[in-house]
Amino acid sequence: MALPEIETSCTESNSSIRFARGAAAAFPIMLGYLPIGIAFGALAVQSGIKISDAALMSIIVFAGSSQFIAVSLIGSGAGLAALVGTTFLVNARHVLMSASLSTKLAGMNKRRLAVLAFGITDESFALHSAKLAREPAEFWFMLGLNTAAYLSWVGSTLIGAALAGRIGTVAGLGFEFALPAMFISLLLIQLESFRSLVVAIVSGGVSLLLYLLIPGTWNVIIAAMTGATLGLLIDSAGLLPHKAAPDSASHAGNEPKG
Amino acid sequence: MSSENLLPYIAGMAVVTYLPRAIPLVGLTGRKLPGAVVAWLRLVPVSVLSALLVPAILAPEGRKLWISIDNPYMLSAVPAAIVALKTRNPALTVIAGMLVHAIITRTG
Questions:
Q1: Is A14 exposed, middle or buried (0-12, 13-18, 19+ CB in 10 A)?
Q2: Cα dihedral B104, B106, B107, B108 sign
Q3: pLDDT, chain A, mean
Q4: Interatomic CA distance for residues B41 and B48, integer angstroms
Q5: How crowded is residue A42: how many other Cβ atoms within 10 Å of its Cβ?
Q6: Could you give the CA distance from residue A237 to residue A184 in angstroms, rounded to a whole number?
Q7: How far does B18 lie from chain A, in Å, by closest CA?
Q8: Chain A hits for B66, Cβ within 8 Å
Q9: Side-chain-side CA neighbours of residue B48 (13 Å)
Q10: Alpha carbon of B69: minimum distance to chain A alpha carbons (Å)
Q11: Is 0.85 exceeded by the ipTM?
């Protein structure tokens, strides 16, 4: 019978289409990673790290801020424990993002979750969250997004490492504003209630304060938790009027798709 | 230091980076969490976005506050926000923001 064949080819082309859509959605991230990746690659090599090691960092760690910090720690002779410990602390905020995403991925099998987990970064989290607020999870879309961002990160690291010292920075082309612009867009799209506005303002303010006062990336995780807690308190105290929880509409039929 | 074998260092970094990303995702997905926890976790995206954005705009270079019309990030944020609200499209917002930022930086 022809039917199963049609189904199979539909499924295959569905995954490819979704993968491609995910990759396209990662366009802002790819732009944003370009100058940062190049800077990282160049910095690493200029600090005496081999091109292959700089590349390996981007390939198996895939975490910008901790990679930069690692370069300076390695340069100042830090030991294994200090380096690994610092890396863990710098990237600990991803626990929060991972936990947040988990609430939208019910039904996805563990192998796929394990694969997607590798690509959780601040930026991919921002895009995934925005999409998952409106639509059920699609594994292939998410994988496409993560993969495109990943290739951009690794590729720009290689470019920076290979050309270390021989190119200037990519300043003056607006690339440094790509990620802030993406965050602006995603934030404004998600500010759909007075509660979310309050959460954003408080979180932003706390984050800025902590950023100026405390080294590391603690500002993100502490501010995010403060903002989320405040939002919860606002809800339970019924202090501010707000639209009905936006997720209530997405509870039905929220099984992740392929 | 540069001739040292960095493989164990990088491998260690990879493990402690991947586990915080994977354990909650694999361990919590599908679990019946208390309603308050789920509600709290769903506020995390807006909270994180703002936590990432504000320092990036107001303290873009070094850990110091730079609230001034000379700060190209602050200036670019305004047209970016306008485009964001009008188009609701991240890609367009990024292109518009980058354009404005490039112009401001070059003509500063």
A1: middle
A2: positive
A3: 87
A4: 11
A5: 22
A6: 29
A7: 6
A8: none
A9: 28
A10: 16
A11: yes
How many percent of chain A have pLDDT more than 90? Answer: 63
Question: Is A156 within 8 Å of A29 (Cβ atoms)?
Answer: no
Q: Of A31-45, A173-187, A238-252, where does mean pLDDT reach its minimum? A: A238-252
Distance, in Å, from the CA atom of A20 to the CA atom of B96, rounded to the nearest integer, reads 23
Mark the ranges of chain B whose per-residue pLDDT is less than 70: 1-3, 108
| Cα–Cα distance for residue pair A202/A20, rounded to 1 Å | 36
The torsion angles phi and psi of A86, rounded to 5 degrees, stand at: -65, -45
Residue A9, min C-alpha distance to chain B (Å): 29
pTM check: above 0.90: no
In chain A, positions 35-74, which contact chain B (CB-CB < 8 Å)? 47-50, 53, 56-57, 60-63, 66, 70, 74
Contact between B65 and B59 under an 8 Å Cβ cutoff? The reply is yes
Residue of B nearest to A178 (CA): B94
d(Cα A256, Cα A127) in Å, to the nearest integer? 16
Q: At what angle do helices A80-91 and A64-75 cross, to 10 degrees?
A: 160
Give the phi and the psi of residue A257 in degrees, each rounded to 5. -100, 170
Whole-angstrom CA distances from A208 to A215, B55, B67, B85 are 12, 5, 12, 24
Q: Which residues pair with A257 in a beta bridge?
A: A138
Q: Look up residue A121 and give its two tokens.
A: 């970064």
Task: Give the per-residue pLDDT at B2.
Answer: 45
Using the structure block, give the residue that is written with the tokens 């594994």. Answer: A139
Chain A residues with CB inside 8 Å of B94's CB?
27-28, 31-32, 178, 181-182, 185
DSSP category for residue A169: -
Contact of A137 with chain B, judged by CB distance below 8 Å, is answered with no
